[in-house]
TrEMBL record:
InterPro entries: Alkaline_phosphatase_core_sf, Phosphoesterase. The keyword Hydrolase applies. It comes from Papaver nudicaule. Keywords: Hydrolase. This is Uncharacterized protein. Residues 1-26 are annotated as: Disordered.
Amino acid sequence: MVSPWIKKGTVVSAPNGPTPDSEFEHSSIPATIKKMFNLSSNFLTNRDAWAGTFEEVVGELTSPRTDCPEVLPDVAPLRSTEANEHRELSGFQSEVVQLAAVLNGDHLLSSFPDELSNKMNVKEAHSYVNEAVSRFIRASKQAVKLGAEESAIVDMRSSLTTRPTATKSSLIRH
C-alpha cells in the first residue's frame, strides 16, 4: 500500500491474524475497513473474515505525511495505438461483460453467458459495461432513498424494455 497515512519506508510481509494462516489479499481491504471502523455487520464472505488486515500499518500516524513529491513524471500511455472498437472481445473483455451482466440482471436471461458477449465488439461491450455499472449505481442510490440499508446489495433484474434499442448485437437471438 502507498498512503500518506503510512510511515515512510514501511514494509509489511505477513499479517498478524486473524487466523494463523491468514494472508494479505484483496479481501484484506474490506476486512481492514470493518475492523478499523468497528462495523457490526457480518463479513460478506468467509474469505473476508480470514483475510489479514492493515489497521496496524494505517493507524500508526495521527496526521498524514507531507513529504510527498510535488512533481510527478509523465505517465507513458498504456498502448501506442487507438483501440480497435470493431474487434472481437478478448477472453478478459468477455469476462468483464459477464460481470456487468450480473450487475444489471442480464445473467438471468437464457442467452447468458454464451450469446451475450459473443455478439459484442469492443465498442459495444464498452457501452454495455458502462451502462450496467451506471444502472447499478443509480438503483443502489434509489434503494437507499427508499429506506434500504446503505450496506445492502441491490439485486438487479433484467429490464430490456426500459433500455435503449439494442444494436446488431442484440442480447436475444431471434
